[in-house]
Amino acid sequence: MTTEELVEKAKEYCEEEYRDTKMLYNRKGSYFYHDDSIVKTGLKYCLAVVQFIQTCGVKYEDVSWYDDYRKKFSEIQKNY
């Protein structure tokens, strides 16, 4: 896989993780309902993917968009 493909797949993963985390956090009556640990876990999964692709040769500059996801995840809790 090329660097661009790795970065694109990582972005897709983080976006999916963000959507799922937001949905679970806001689901009423769910076990995960308003559980802050689900937000932290989703963000950790994204970080793990970003760190993994860096071990495959992707430069930090190519994954600086991770900071945007960090902010988006923190907004989940603020917006409720």
Task: Name some characteristics of this structure.
single chain, 3 helices
The main sheet comes to: none
Order of helices and strands: HHH
Taken from the alpha-carbon principal axes, the silhouette is elongated
Taking all Cα atoms into account, the compactness measure Rg is 14 Å
Residues in β-strands, percent: under 5%
Walkthrough of the structure:
The protein has one domain (3-78). The chain contains three helices and no strands. 71% of the residues lie in helices and 0% in strands. Helix 1 (3-26) runs antiparallel to helix 2 (36-55), helix 1 packs parallel to helix 3 (66-78) and helix 2 (36-55) runs antiparallel to helix 3. It has 80 residues and is mostly helical. It has helices spanning 3-26, 36-55, 66-78. The N and C termini lie far apart (39 Å).
What topology emerges from the helices and strands here?
Blueprint lengths: L2 H24 L9 H20 L10 H13 L2
Helix pairs in contact: 1-2, 1-3, 2-3
In brief:
The model has no long low-confidence stretch (mean pLDDT 89). The relative contact order is 0.19. This protein has one domain (3-78).
